[in-house]
Write a structure and sequence with these properties.
3 domains; five-stranded mixed β-sheet; Elongation Factor Tu (Ef-tu), domain 3; Rossmann fold; alpha/beta; 336 residues
């Protein structure tokens, strides 16, 4: 293993034997610039400040002599030969991520509940998707209107992308995913979009509030925190209609078993007193649970999704319990 420090951010990560600097950086959740991932474009160029490069993989991009003299190298084509200090800019906000259009293939579709499918796409190795956890993309299928969907997977692997799709008879996109899609089907990805992203400079405990398939962007955020080896506590509240639709139960349970700083609380609408329960009643139960667990929220960051108007009462309760408005991050568009 080699330790690599990126300046000027000062962040450090480990590279396994035979792993390129770029592969190690992405696995560790570093938001570094790259594009082709095969040594053709030069966008992942970094400067070696100290240490040694172990092996240069074949690449087409050619540095000028004065660039070589400055210590420039391609992160996607170099393995570390020792501990290293390198200089590379990092992507700090959604505005820094370029718009991309990628032709992807269906890798597989998992039937996780009667009315929910997990769609997994695979991009070409030479054109993986760069995005920040919490963002969404637009999916294009020939003959159908474009559909925006939150990415449910970690940015640490932009070649395999996950999306959660709930069935609706009125939704042509959902009907296609459930009834017509096949492995290797083509789908065009455009994006990423959105500013619902992680505050990576915060060291405060985090609360994630998801509704239904809105678990998708929360899953991406949580996996990114894991890749960053974040040490602050994380608590996921997931609101679902009934236990049959709690389709990631084993997944979140495995996170709680594996991580000392992660807990989750499911909120089931079927446990409500009214039949069927109203949305307002369900949100009230969710609010009561959160403020019971955390009576004072001034030292927390809260990430939640759902229509802002329908969650107004929940937002008000959190603010009443001293949550600063600038630490409440809301994904209010329905693209999950």
């Amino acid at each position: 293993m080699s330790s690599i420090c990126i300046e000027p951010s000062g962040r450090t990560f480990e590279a396994a034997s035979g792993e390129t600097v770029l592969e190690a950086a992405l696995r560790a959740g570093m938001n570094v610039p790259y594009n082709c991932n095969n040594g053709s474009c030069g966008q992942c160029a970094a400067r070696l400040i100290s240490g040694e490069i172990g092996k240069h993989l074949p690449h087409d991009y050619a540095f000028r002599q004065h660039e070589k003299d400055q210590g420039l190298f391609l992160m996607c084509s170099a393995t570390p030969g020792s501990d290293m200090v390198i200089e590379s800019r990092t992507i700090g906000s959604a505005e820094d991520v370029p718009h991309q259009e990628i032709d992807a293939k269906v890798y597989k579709v998992d039937e996780v509940a009667d009315n929910v499918r997990v769609l997994q796409l695979r991009t070409p190795r030479s054109q993986t998707l760069r995005f920040l956890a919490g963002q969404y993309v637009t999916l294009h299928i020939d003959g159908l209107a474009p559909r925006s969907k939150s990415v449910a997977s970690c940015p640490c692997n932009g070649m395999y992308l996950q999306f959660h799709v709930r069935y609706s008879q009125e939704d042509p996109f959902a009907r296609y995913i459930f009834n017509n899609i096949t492995p290797r089907s083509s789908m065009r990805i455009a994006g990423p979009h959105g500013s619902f992203t992680l505050d990576e400079n915060s060291r405060r405990p985090m609360i994630f509030i998801a509704n239904d398939t809105g678990i998708a962007p929360m899953k991406s955020l949580i996996e990114h925190c894991i890749a960053l080896e974040s040490s602050q506590p994380m608590h996921l509240y997931w609101l679902v209609k009934n236990r049959d639709e709690y389709y990631l139960a084993n997944y979140v349970r495995s996170l709680e078993d594996a991580l000392d700083n992660f807990v989750y609380t499911p909120i089931f609408q079927e446990d409500m007193s009214s039949e069927p329960p109203g949305f307002d009643e369900t949100v009230e139960k969710l609010a009561e649970q959160i403020v019971m667990d955390y009576p004072v929220l001034e030292e927390y960051d809260v990430y939640m999704n759902g229509p802002a108007d329908r969650y107004a009462a929940l937002t008000e309760r959190l603010v009443q319990h001293r949550l600063p408005q600038n630490r409440l991050f809301i994904d209010s568009l329905k693209h999950y």
